[in-house]
Amino acid sequence: MNIGPKPYGIVDLLSALWELDKSVFKSMNLAGTSAFLDILMVSFTVLGLPYVLGLLSVPLWMRAKKEQAIDLVILIVIVSVSVELVKLVVGRERPFDVLAEVNGVSFGGFSKASDPSFPSAHAARAFAVAVLLTYGRPRGQASVAVGVAAMIGISRIYLGVHWPSDVLAGALLGVGVAFLVVKLGNTPGFYHRCRSRAARVIDQALERTRGSHRESNVSLPLQNCNRVYSCHYNAMQTTHWRAKIYALSHRLMQLLYLQGSIWNPVLQ
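Above: the chain sequence. Below: its structure as tokens.
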């Protein structure tokens, strides 16, 4: 005699989650229904590419946040490698490989992918970078960063290349790795020492590169003159951008001085 509802087993639970995954995917996979949304979602997807997120390290370095810039690059590498390893183990098929009707966009190849689906690399990278950049910062800034990361994840469902559970798993993986990198960066140890040394090495290499430009002296002879004049600017006394301006102005002066006849009365 059966009393009460039949308890759910693990198979029933997985089946229910699978149906929920498909239902949410179908409700969010709206690619092709609006040109504005298509462009918007493709833009968010582009933001989740590794080399686009990696560009954020440039302003960090320029603002003297060199160690955080290195953390960012290392984080993106670790997250990308971790995602690929999980994909190889799980081997989940993409939505367009399972469902008969999946909406996508026809430009840029943003609705195509050949590797396994689980988890979403875009979501993992986006949430990882959001956590790293806003750790310990005001809640408002963190909300904006997480909102952008969420839109990157949603764009993958919208374009038909990921299941919602792929995005959720990617977000969790990215957040976990980001907290690990932050923890390592704030704790004195092997990683902390290696990161500091890498920052010094990169800084010295950049300084040598800037120095090679500063050491170029610009000398301008005044031709066709009765007396020999030269405009000599030592770029070592200026910053790199000023040296470029001086070099351009000297070139313009040289073009004028080569005429000779205009300047002879003045220089005599």
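The longest strand covers residues 218-221.
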